[in-house]
Every structure is written in structure tokens, then in C-alpha cells.
Specification:
Number of helices: 15
Bound molecules: ligand KE4
CATH superfamily of the largest domain: Type I PLP-dependent aspartate aminotransferase-like (Major domain)
Mean pLDDT: 97
Structural class: alpha/beta
CATH class of the largest domain: Alpha Beta
Shape: globular
Largest sheet: 7 strands, mixed
CATH architecture of the largest domain: 3-Layer(aba) Sandwich
Number of strands: 14
Strand order of the largest sheet: 4-10-9-8-7-5-6
């Protein structure tokens, strides 16, 4: 038994499923999760001393790679002044400035400690602003583990095949409508019937939680127009795409704008940070300025703020996104070429440095087509790559990420590993 197996045995006695977040349990691919003890750059090392080129990147935050010197130094220096004040400090202003510099359409923001808190608060705020209770989300989109949004959600809910989630009161779940992502023709009739009662639509502008699903041309624009016409707010969930697919996130890359935006992951640089923000007239309702309550003991935590500021500063340097694009394009082309060589039907969906390799013949454009992908073959590929020293997301329904620490050696090594892995499928 290796050390990961021994630790997992103990972990299962301590935590439900042996983990503190379901998708880490390898439920989608089988086998024993690796326990890691350090990360550096593009590499993770497990407790048995094995190294892996990491494409999970803590599910998105580590766009600079592990243990980035400037981020680690910022954390250490901030911690020497204390870990939390529970009071205003300048670091909050510095991170808010950096976020708004990249996304000037965010007139006001509020920091939280997770993406789930951010999307939950955005929903409550939209309901208060519009005085309406019903919401629209899209099948397979995941917006965090919050009651109203654990309805036909993606990520771990999809991976584990959970029927939405028990424990969500049916009276509440009934207020959440779902439509297929990218299905433009369904928008018109839906809003004609329900529009007057819809507080907001919430959407991953580029879905990462069914694997990567880019938006169909015109889909987001049509959704924004329908929301506007119905007096509903558009909540753009950029927890994953924010600072990932462009400095201004998916909203900059795609030219759409939400009334509210949710953030997480990268803006914390690997520490617990989320945020929601947007129109000043809507944000003015948030307590203590307005009556909509939202709070958090560690919101705006000085150490987390310092990690976020250092991360966004490094990302803002010229050429960062061009380098991410070049490395990601090289990897994608190599994987597709090797799959073709092995005569394996694959579809590789990619937007910038977030990507998913689906084992599927047909295009994967929505949750239904993603569900038709060959998950068993993905699981075999995952384990073959793990043995080759490459750590992919342990689920077909998750996005993989390239970081600025992935150089040509890592990319070319991954392509060579895939060649050997494909031969074994
Ligand atoms: P957190 O509460 O996990 O910080 O953020 C929730 C969330 C909200 N919106 C989007 C688009 C997200 O992708 C997430 C979280 N993503 C998952 C992975 N797909 C986090 C990993 C996990 O659940 O352990």
C-alpha cells in the first residue's frame, strides 16, 4: 500500500468520502486520490515522492503555477502583520482597484471567501432588486454549493450523478428554472411565459463544469437581451473564467456584460477569496448601505488580499495571456494529433488556457452532448496519464488548466505521455 492509500483510509474515517470537496474523491475515474505534499511551478509532488505535471491547478486559481515566488512572499509578508483584523484595511482597496482596473464595468464590489458565497449573494441581491423570486440557470452549469443553484448542476454534482441535491426544499427548487446551455430558440418562449417573474438568469459565460463548453454565437447576447426586455438581471458567473480567459474575463473576451458578476479562484491566488459586483444601483442595496444582508468573518482577509494583489499584478504584465494562449494551443494541437494517430475519436474544447478532452465522436456543445462522451474511456485515459506523471482533472465534466508555469518541456512531455497513454486505451 502506498502512502496515499494509507492516508485515504484514515481520511475516510474522518471525512465523508475521505475528502473536503466531493470532486477530489476520484468518483468520476475510480481509484485512490493522490495526496500531495508540495507544488512548485507546473508540478505537484505526492506523498510517495512521485511528480506530476499539473493541469488541475487547484481547479483554476493557480494560473501562475504553484508556489509562485511573488505570491508566496506577499502571503508571508502580510501574515507577519497578522492574519485577520475583522476590520477595514488597505489591502481590500488594493485588490478591488486591481479587479476594477481590468473590469471597469464593475462599479462596486464586495469580497467574500468563496465563489459559492459570491453567487449566493448575487442571487439574493437580484431577487431583492427586482422583487421577484424565480431564477433561470442552465443545465450543467455549476455555480457553487448553494441551495437555489444545486439544480441540474455540473461539476461534482454531475460527476457523481446526483439527482440535483437532496436537502434542497422542493418549494425552493421549484423557483429555479433550467434550460439547455446554448439553446437560443428556447429563450424566447421561456421568457414569454416566465419573464415577468424572473429575478435573474445566472450563467457560466464559458461553461467549465461540464467540461469546457464555449458559448454558441449569439447565445449570451440573446440571453442578455431577453433579460433586459423582461426586467430581469443577468448574473455572469466568472468564478472560473475571471482573469482566466482574458484579463477582463469572458465579458471582455466575448463582449457581453452582466448586471452582476461573481468571482473566485484566480482573484485569491490560491487563498479563499470570492467577490460579487456590478451596477452601482444594484450594489447599493447591499448592507450596510442597503437592506440586503451579506457578511463574512474573513471577507477581505489581509493575507488573501495580498495573494490576490500579487497574482493580478503578475498577470497584468505584458505578454501573459499571449504566453498562455501559445502554450495551450500547442498542447491542444498535440493532443488532437496524437488521438488521431491512435484513431481515437476525441473532441477537444478550449477557450484560452481552459480546455477539456472529450472522448466523443460528435461535437460537445451542451450538457446532453457532454453526457454522451465516453466517461469510461476518459477514466482509463486519466489513469494512464497519471502513471505517466500527468495529473488531469479526475472527471470528464471538469476543465483542465494551463498555467504560466507550463513551459515547452511540460507541454511536449504531456503530448508524448498522451501518445503512450492513447496506445493503451
Ligand atoms: P467555490 O465555492 O468552490 O469557491 O466556487 C464555486 C463555483 C462557482 N462558479 C463556478 C463557475 C465554479 O466553477 C465554482 C467552483 N468550481 C469547482 C470545480 N469545477 C470547484 C472545485 C470543487 O468543488 O472542489
Amino acid at each position: 500500500m502506498d502512502r496515499s492509500e494509507a492516508l485515504f483510509e484514515e481520511a475516510r474515517r474522518l471525512f465523508p468520502g475521505g475528502v473536503n470537496s466531493p470532486v477530489r474523491a476520484f468518483g468520476g475515474v475510480g481509484g485512490t486520490p493522490r495526496f500531495f505534499r508540495r507544488g512548485h511551478g507546473a508540478t505537484l509532488e505526492d506523498v510517495d515522492g512521485r511528480s506530476y505535471v499539473d493541469y488541475v491547478g487547484s481547479w483554476g486559481p493557480l494560473i501562475l503555477g504553484h508556489a509562485h515566488a511573488e505570491v508566496s512572499r506577499a502571503i508571508a509578508e502580510a501574515a507577519l502583520d497578522g492574519t485577520s483584523y475583522g476590520a477595514p484595511h488597505e489591502g481590500e482597496i488594493r485588490l478591488a482597484r486591481a479587479v476594477r482596473e481590468a473590469m471597469p464595468w464593475l462599479e462596486r464590489v464586495r469580497f467574500t471567501s468563496s465563489g459559492t458565497e459570491a453567487t449566493s449573494a448575487a442571487l439574493r441581491l437580484a431577487r431583492a432588486f427586482t422583487k421577484r423570486d424565480e431564477i433561470l440557470k442552465f443545465d450543467g452549469c455549476y455555480h457553487g454549493a448553494t441551495d437555489s443553484l444545486l439544480v441540474r448542476a455540473g461539476s461534482g454534482v454531475e460527476t457523481l450523478g446526483l439527482p440535483d441535491s437532496p436537502g434542497v426544499p422542493s418549494a425552493l427548487a421549484r423557483l429555479t428554472h433550467t434550460l439547455p446551455f446554448n439553446d437560443v430558440p428556447r429563450l424566447e418562449p421561456f421568457f414569454a411565459e416566465h419573464g415577468a417573474r424572473i429575478a435573474c438568469a445566472i450563467v457560466e459565460p464559458i461553461v467549465g463544469n461540464m467540461g469546457v463548453l464555449p458559448p454558441a454565437p449569439g447565445f449570451l447576447e440573446a440571453l442578455a437581451a431577453r433579460c433586459r426586455a423582461a426586467g430581469a438581471l443577468l448574473v455572469v458567473d466568472e468564478v472560473m473564467t475571471g482573469f482566466r480567459v482574458a484579463r477582463g474575463g469572458a465579458q471582455e473576451r466575448l463582449g457581453v456584460r452582466g448586471d452582476l458578476t461573481a468571482f473566485g479562484k484566480i482573484i485569491g491566488g490560491g487563498l479563499p477569496v470570492g467577490a460579487f459586483g456590478g451596477r452601482a444601483d444594484v450594489m447599493a442595496l447591499v448592507a450596510p448601505e442597503g437592506p440586503v444582508y451579506q457578511a463574512g468573518t474573513l471577507s477581505g482577509n489581509p493575507v488573501a488580499m495580498a495573494a490576490g494583489v500579487a497574482t493580478l499584478a503578475a498577470l497584468a504584465r505584458p505578454g501573459s495571456y499571449e504566453r498562455l494562449e501559445a502554450a495551450s494551443a500547442r498542447l491542444a494541437a498535440g493532443l488532437v494529433e496524437e488521438a488521431a494517430r491512435a484513431k481515437l475519436p476525441v473532441r477537444l474544447n478550449r477557450v484560452g488556457s481552459m480546455w477539456t478532452l472529450f472522448f466523443a465522436e460528435a461535437e460537445v456543445v451542451d450538457a446532453a452532448s457532454a453526457r454522451r462522451a465516453d466517461r469510461a474511456r476518459y477514466a482509463s485515459f486519466f489513469h494512464a496519464m497519471l502513471e505517466e506523471g500527468v495529473y488531469l482533472p479526475p472527471s470528464q465534466f471538469e476543465a483542465a488548466f494551463v498555467s504560466l508555469a507550463h513551459g515547452e518541456a511540460e507541454i511536449d512531455g504531456t503530448i508524448a505521455a498522451a501518445r503512450r497513454a492513447f496506445e493503451r486505451l
